[in-house]
Amino acid sequence: MDMTAPGRHADNDSEYAWRQWTEKLRDTVERHRLWNDGDRIVIAVSGGPDSMLLLHAIAALTGHRPGSGQIIIAHVHHGFRPQESDEEARFVEREAERLGIRVAMKRVDAPGWAAEHKMNAQAAARQLRYDFLKEVAAREQAPIIALAHHADDQAETVLMRLLRGTGSTGLSGMAWKREADGFSFVRPLLGVRKAELLEWCRLRGIAYVTDSSNAKTDYLRNRVRLDVMPQLEQENPGLVASLCRTADVLREENDWIEEQARQLFQCVVKTVKDGEDVPMESSPPDGVVLDRRALLQAHVALQRRLIKLILNYLTREAEQADFDTVEALRNAAIREQPSTWKTDAVPGVEFRREYDRLLWLRQPIGQAKNGPDMLDLTIDRTYESGCLPIPSNGSTLHWVIECDSGSSITQEAAHQAASGRRRVPSGQAEALFDAEQLCWPLRVRYRRDGDRMRILGLNGSKKVQDMFVDAKIAPSLRGTVPIVADANGQILWVPGVRRSDAALVGPSTDRVLRLELEGGAHIPAQQQRSCSTQPNRMM
């Protein structure tokens, strides 16, 4: 670490120039609405020339008086260069005391934290630093966190992202103001060149320290700064200005696309709670669901942005989702052939495509909340009618025993049996049984591994799992479907799929049991009927 304390030239001309420069900076603050008069500001100060000039500039803009408390210094000792970092911390502490500004300091083990979380050391340091800045801002009740990034940093950032590959969001670079976690992160110096900052430090006699690691080419940013940028500037001396201008234009266009995507998000995305699709205001959700057809109607740019918004809504890890990840999810969603599959390409989020239903889940919800064996309800023939609530999906199972052999429902069933037309109801939302042929009481439960059911016309039985697949019942919904079985465990009906070949209604039937499932996300609305409004209808 080197410390620079240039002599100050406090002549009238330099004082006038400083006032002009700070007024220009004030215009920047007002134009980008970085903060309001009187706002408390936490300034991230490493001790380098950029952050030290920012500290002095904000002190001038706010009319700082020692001990006023409007500005607070925050400094993080990252643990990379123990001896140098100790000296930098002492330097910041001395300067804070000299200026009469409170300072908050924290020592972290960025290398150890990076190894523990399997991430890049610089990314780990940034995460720990930002966490501390927010911690200080919360404690000090300061809505503003000021960062010392400048125009050269912006140009390097845009170029680095271009080298790695990115979209308009990445090429937008760093924002003048970014809202996150209840705080405003502001960058007042984003339009100022590094050389200008150094010159002001010299003219104002502002002391600073130099990080020795900035001269090493171990990191990509340093290589871009020290090797790539100088060569490119030989071809275009205005390179930094061009890259910064490009970032500004793309940021404005990106903001517009983002707003369009947010409006689309509010219109077409629902949350998933306990296996059900519910309005967005429900919180916290298990995940979100999107109708694939709505995604297909959107422009490809909005498709990508919508997927990114969904990921950001569900997990912080989505910030690391790159273009390839988002594009892979988009292609999986728009592919024409019907399919059901899942992937966990983004940590903490499972993506499922279930035909035209697209789900992003924080955790699997394929079984009822209390597990597949927790539903155990009884239908007793002692009662001629009743209803049972199904907790997994909010549906209700109604039953009624029709005792009159001359009733329309029995006559219709007998006519169908005699004519050979649809002897067995479709099994979608309603099923009919000869009540006298059933083994009572009936039980209602969720599916179990190995479940099989005998089907009319099939020599033998079929796995319930295979029936779900044939009926295109979404995997995340299969564990919520109630199954009706008799006292011996024989499965009679899987609502929304099929009924069995047991207890068929025929001409000699005297008592008919009619079962109907009202609700249930796996049954299309047009196939559902109400027991109370259509008592004699048979599917």
Describe this structure in words.
The chain has 539 residues and is α+β, with helices and mostly antiparallel strands. It folds into three domains: 2-235, Rossmann fold (3-Layer(aba) Sandwich); 253-361, Chorismate Mutase Domain, subunit A (Up-down Bundle); 377-527, no CATH class. 39% of the residues lie in helices and 21% in strands. The model is unreliable at 364-373, 414-427 and 529-539 (pLDDT under 50).
List keywords for this structure.
disordered C terminus; 21% strand; cytoplasm; Rossmann fold; six-stranded mixed beta sheet; tRNA(Ile)-lysidine synthase; nucleotide-binding; 539 residues; Chorismate Mutase Domain, subunit A; 3 domains; ligase; six-stranded antiparallel beta sheet; 25 strands; tRNA_Ile_lys_synt; alpha+beta
Set down the secondary structure blueprint.
Blueprint: E1 2-4, H1 12-31, E2 41-44, H2 49-61, E3 71-77, H3 82-99, E4 102-107, H4 110-116, H5 121-140, E5 144-146, H6 151-164, H7 168-171, E6 177-180, E7 183-186, H8 194-204, E8 208-210, H9 220-235, H10 239-268, E9 269-273, E10 276-278, E11 287-291, H11 292-296, H12 300-314, H13 323-334, E12 340-346, E13 349-354, E14 357-361, E15 377-379, E16 385-390, E17 395-402, H14 408-419, E18 430-434, E19 442-445, E20 452-454, E21 461-463, H15 464-470, H16 475-478, E22 483-485, E23 491-494, E24 498-499, E25 512-518
Parallel strand pairs: 2-3, 2-5, 3-4, 5-7
Antiparallel strand pairs: 1-8, 6-7, 9-10, 9-11, 11-14, 12-13, 13-14, 15-19, 16-17, 17-25, 18-25, 19-22, 20-21, 22-23, 23-24
Helix pairs in contact: 2-8, 4-5, 6-9, 6-10, 10-12, 12-13
